[in-house]
Structures are given as C-alpha cells and as structure tokens.
What does this fold into?
Amino acid sequence: ELTPHQRETYRIGEEEGTLRLNNMGEGVTIQNVFELVMRLKQICNFDPRTGESAKLERLEADLEEVVAGGRKALIFSQWVETLEKLGDRLGHLNPLYYHGQIPSAKRDGVLKRFKEDKKHPILLMSYGAGAVGLNLQFAGYVFLYDRWWKPAVEDQAINRAHRIGAAGPVTVTRFVAADTIEQRIDQVLREKRELFD
It folds into this structure.
C-alpha cells in the first residue's frame, strides 16, 4: 500500500493526467499515454512532494535481514534517478551502483568489490546495464523495485543471480503498489507469462 501522502499525490496525478488526455481528444498519442504511465510509476517509487516511499520502507526491513545474515542483494530499477535516491537512503549499507552512466572501464571493478568486499552487500542496478552477460550467482536476493514491461527483461535481471553454480536458493521480491498502474501492469505481465507458457 502506498503511504497516505503517496496515495494523494498518485490520485491527483492520475486525475490530472487523465483529464489532460481527454482534453487532447483525437490528438492523443501513445506517447502521451506512456508519459502518464511513467509519471504514475515514478510516484509509486517515491512521492515527489514528500520523498516518502512505501516500497523503500519494506525494502529497508528486508535488507536489514539480508545484511544481518551475511548475504548479498541485487536491487533493480528502470531509472538511474530511483537508484540514486535508494543509494542515498541506504547509504549506511554502502551500496554500489551499476548502470549505464557508470563508465565501462569502472564496471568490472564495481562487480569485483561487490563480490569480494563484505562491506558492500548491495548492488543497485538498472535493468539495461544488468540485463546481459553478467554472472552474479553469489547474490542470494533480487529485488525488482519497479516492474519492466517485458517478462523476459525481468527474467534476465533475475538470472544475474540465479545461475548454475549459485550457492543456494535465490529469493526474488517484486514490488507492486496496490491499486495503481503497477498492479495493472503486473496483471498484464502475468497474462503474458501464461501466454508464453
């Protein structure tokens, strides 16, 4: 559930966005709809007015257990801005970053530190940068902070940790804000998976 402030910001964003689309009439484009969806998804991550985040409250509680158990976690978002906000709020856990704005020459060093240094139990990754060719099977937890449109992209993210040679089970947590566009997207993703199966 969103926090009360997030819920109010979401309600206003949805009402104003829908009204704007309706006023555009036949001039509305897929891009206009997509922009509204993205804005609502971002509110589900963090309230832009207050900075509150129901997801972050849950994530922090989960990460305390992960770190206390000496395990490592990957946290995925589609936005670098969200990863940076998470990093600021999780600073006490010394998170590392891996996304498209990290220079290629530094990426191997980030992965090495994450793997070998117990002081860095968390890696904040973008879906794009973390989608292909990485083998992080030493991470026992994967958190999908926001959802991607295609199930295959989420599966690729999860597969960074869930590899042959993984040292135990991998726990995957998908965050979905109730009664929001995220819940509708989750439903579509479930239907796509059933169709693929």
Summary: The chain has a mean pLDDT of 89. The first helix runs from residue 4 to 24.
